[in-house]
Amino acid sequence: MADLHEVAEPLLYGQIPPVAIVSASMAVLLLIMVWKKVPALITSGLDKQIVAIRAQLDEARTLRAEAEQLRADYAARIASAEKDAAAMLEHARHEAEAIIARAEHSTADVMARREKMAADKISAAEQAAVDDLRQRAVTAAASAAAQLIAARHDADADHALIDHNIASLVN
Q1: Cα–Cα distances in Å, from 103 out to 5, 108, 140?
Q2: What is the C-alpha to C-alpha distance for residues 73 and 66, in angstroms, rounded to an integer?
Q3: Residue 66: which residues within 8 A CB-CB, separation 6 or more?
Q4: What pairs with residue 12 in β-bridges?
Q5: Is residue 37 in a domain?
Q6: pLDDT tens-place string over residues 24-63
Q7: Contact 39, 33 (CB under 8 A)
Q8: Domain of 106, in residue numbers
Q9: Which residues contact 43 (CB under 8 A, 6 or more apart)?
């Protein structure tokens, strides 16, 4: 029964086993590949890819450096813009304070001038009223004196007054 489990191996031309055929064909294939310089083609292709990958890595490093430089430039610009904005705000505050101070000073000056003008007008009105009152008093006094003189002086009193004045001039 041991014979049943044993399988007969096919042979090429009755003498060459299949393993030897596969091994020989592999050896021939490898020799043809070496003869046609396939390994050199493979290594040159890999070398070209390595060179291309290195170029891409160098370009990536350059781009990264440029990007970092741009980022630093923009950060500096932002910082500068923030400083400029703060300076402009501070300048605007100072200008506003100066404008307010000038306005307060101008207002105080205008108020002082208007108070002086009002005081001058009041003084002028008082003076005009006093002058008017004096004029009326003078007019009233002159009128009263004229009436008194007319009532108390007659022609005899006038002759006596004239004689008295002439006598005082002669002396």
Answers
A1: 122, 8, 54
A2: 10
A3: none
A4: 16
A5: yes
A6: 899 998 888 888 888 888 888 899 999 999 999 999 999 9
A7: yes
A8: 10-165
A9: none
